[in-house]
Amino acid sequence: METKVIITDTHTHLYSEEFNQDRDEMMKRAIEAGVSRFFIPAIDSTCTESMYTLEKKYPENVFLMMGLHPTYVKENYLEELQHVKNELTKRKFYAVGEIGIDLYWDKTHLPQQQIAFKKQIQLAKEYKLPIVIHCRDAFDEIFEILEQEKSDDLFGIFHCFSGTYEQALRAISYNMKLGIGGVVTFKNGKIDQFLKQIDIKYLVLETDSPYLAPIPFRGKRNESSYIVSIVDKLAQIYGLSTHEIAIRTTENSKAIFGI
After folding, report:
1. Model pTM?
2. CB contact set of 254 (below 8 Å; sequence gap of 6+)
3. How far is Cα 217 from Cα 222, in angstroms, rounded to an integer?
């Protein structure tokens, strides 16, 4: 039997109320499956306290980000950005995220989403932190801002990457790793068709739990232990052992988060 490897879930909403009934059991299942590093994106100020509680309970495993999610950019977005700023001054975070642009649900706040994205990229640079990008139906809009902000101190993860091969190369050109999750296991996910052409050093693993469960759990609540299905799929694509996939993607996550 192979020695226990360390798998890193670079994107999981562990504070989600969908885990309120069985959070500790869910964490136990994940840790038993080899997942011992959980990076937690922020959504808006309402999740801050739950994130701190989680970190207190699992100080060895849980690493926090701070940011304002694009679908939570509403009329009060400037107050929310102020909250992000305030928290960043108070303590250590491992990334500014998740931030970006989402035009899938609602295009009304696009100008505010653009401002919020740009301001948070600038905060990340100020604190020398990576960014974690949420992009839905918005590759052009995201790339436009990355193009304006590109520099040596701009780096991070394109979370839940589901674009084309060309978009993958462009994301990588801005010092981004690609966050690979459940989509890689979907029949219509498409990224599995070109992924092998991308060097594995650009990939990190994620679940985005409780969302986007991989096959064979698609349609159910996702959880971090299901990342094993993503590891299996990448092992098939790259012709490597699952052990090797876990080691390399964890190394890649360390390169981004610095831990």
Report:
1. 0.97
2. none
3. 7
